[in-house]
Amino acid sequence: MKISIEGHHYQVSDATRTYATSAVEKAERFYSPIIDCHMTIREVKATFTADLVVRVQGQTLKASDNDAKLYKAVDAACDKMTRQLQKLHDKRRNHRNAMPDDSTLSEV
Predict the structure, then answer these.
(1) Which CA distances in Å does 33 have to 13, 40, 65, 85, 100?
(2) Is residue 48 within 8 Å of residue 42, measured between CB atoms?
(3) pLDDT tens, 37-51?
(4) How far is CA 96 from the centre of its chain?
(5) DSSP labels for 30-77?
(6) Residue 8, in any domain of the structure
(7) For residue 8, what is the domain's CATH number?
(8) What is the C-alpha separation between 4 and 25, in angstroms, rounded?
(9) Residue 63: which of 49, 78, 85 has the closest Cα?
């Protein structure tokens, strides 16, 4: 998985880059394969915004969060993305393994 982290009106430090990278890597446990992840961190009037874009096969997922503290914004965006990836994983797995129920079989 390719991970890129950049700042918009914010200089991303090595510690912040390491923290965000480790937070994003946790998402791979919930859906695989992830093609790439792109996180943009913005600072506007002492409010941080973390935008996370994840590309998987056939779809692009986006999550964003604002907070006064940088690490809280990064964690919240990653949590939102984790929920989206888990939902996508369950949807694809359940669709593939779906068995017709008895009511549809009796109608035929």
Answers:
(1) 28, 21, 24, 11, 28
(2) yes
(3) 999 999 999 999 999
(4) 23
(5) TSS-EEEEEEEEEEETTEEEEEEEEEETTEEEEEEEEESSHHHHHHHH
(6) yes
(7) 3.30.160.100
(8) 12
(9) 78
pLDDT of residue 94: 83
Residue among 34, 38, 36, 35 nearest 50 (CA): 38
Are 34 and 56 in contact, with CB atoms under 8 Å apart? yes
Per the structure, the complete domain to which residue 11 belongs is given by 2-96
Token representation of residue 33? 């394969």
DSSP state of 42: E
**Average pLDDT over every residue of 53-81:** 95
* Residue in the structure block whose two tokens are 């880059």: 17
Q: Which two tokens stand for residue 18?
A: 């390491």
CB atoms under 10 Å from CB of 2, counted, come to 9
Number of independent structural domains in the chain: 1
* Size (the chain), residues: 108
Selection from 30, 15, 88, 77 nearest residue 52 by Cα: 77
What DSSP element (H or E) covers 57? none
Element (H, E) at 99: none
Q: What is the pTM of this model?
A: 0.81
